[in-house]
Each structure stands twice: as C-alpha cells, then as structure tokens.
Specification:
Number of strands: 8
CATH architecture: Alpha-Beta Complex
Structural class: alpha+beta
Strand content: 25-35%
Number of helices: 3
Largest sheet: 5 strands, antiparallel
Shape: globular
CATH class: Alpha Beta
Helix content: 10-25%
Distance between the termini: 39 Å
Strand order of the largest sheet: 1-2-3-6-7
CATH superfamily: Peptide deformylase
C-alpha cells in the first residue's frame, strides 16, 4: 500500500477551491490519487476523505464508515470510491448532528444535513452508480461532497454556539453512553 499523505489543514487555499471534474477515470494519475487517498484515510480514524484534503483538486471522495474512536457508533460499510459525485435531497428535512474533519482537528460542531439523499457517481471501473443513502452515511457523503465545492462543515454551522472543542465533545459522548 502507498504511503499516507499529509492531510491539508484549514487555511490552505485548496480547501476553498471547486475541485475539477475527472475526465478519464482510468488514467494513471487518477489511480494514483485514489491509492493515496485510500492509504491516507486508512492511517486515520476518519470515516471519509476528499481529494482536496491530499492537495489534489479533483472530484473524488471515499466514504469508509466504520466504528472508530472519533465515531464509535458509526455503521460499518466497505470503503467506497466515488468519482464526480452528485446528490439530491429526497426531502427538505434536515437534522443537526455532530461532525468533525481531518482538516480541522480538535473541533466538532452540530451541522444540519439532509437525512435522506439520492446519489450518483462513477466508480473506479468507470460505471455509473445511482443509489440512496440515509442517516450517518448520507452525512458523510454531504460532508465530503462539500470539500469538492470548496466548503467545510464549519460553513454549514447555523450558530457559533454549536462549535465546541473535541475534548468537550468526547465528554458529552461519555455522559450520554448507556452503562
């Protein structure tokens, strides 16, 4: 497996750029970017990554929901590479839940997101995939999709009181766990 790449941090201009669409999903450049994203994500306790987070302005995300110290109750799904992703909300209803980001360490915030979405993307073999996501996995998708639009989850926060230190977040989680 390829070596992990440093995660781009908030303040780096690439996080504020619209990522470029991928034209040739089978090119050696795109395969290299995907391999780097996979190894970088595997070296973290994150549940998703976007190409801009490894300094590549390309429309590629990976969703890899799994229980981690950062997201102990995350559902387990196989890492899924999504090229040129798009989505549509299935309802106007949004719900707030906690998010963090590998590019913004030490901070968590309550972020409103659509609970149910229809998505489309091109997979690594060049096939178009259309499906629906809900709950936490839909949240991951929207979070990573935002990176391709030059946004971070902090841009979605409705009130600054919804932003807390990650250390306080872990205290909140510990207090709500069932003994």
């Amino acid at each position: 497996m390829m070596a992990a790449h440093d995660i781009v941090q908030l303040g780096n201009p690439i996080l504020r750029q619209h990522a470029e669409a991928v034209v040739d999903t089978q090119s050696s450049e795109i395969r290299h970017i995907i391999e780097t994203m996979q190894s970088t994500l595997a070296a973290t306790s994150g549940v998703g990554i976007a190409a801009p987070q490894i300094s590549e302005s390309k429309q590629i995300i990976i969703i890899a929901s799994r229980p981690t110290p950062r997201y102990p109750s995350a559902p387990l799904i196989a890492p899924t590479v999504m090229i040129n992703p798009a989505f549509q909300a299935l309802t106007n209803v949004q719900e707030k839940d906690w998010e963090g980001c590998l590019s913004i360490p030490g901070i968590r915030a309550l972020v409103p997101r659509h609970r149910n979405i229809a998505i489309s993307y091109t997979d690594q073999c060049g096939a178009l995939v259309e499906t629906q996501l809900n709950g936490f996995v839909a949240r991951i998708f929207q979070h990573e999709f935002d990176h391709l639009q030059g946004k971070t989850y902090l841009d979605r926060v409705q009130d600054n009181v919804d932003i807390i230190a990650e250390s306080e977040f872990f205290k909140l989680i510990a207090a709500t766990e069932v003994p």
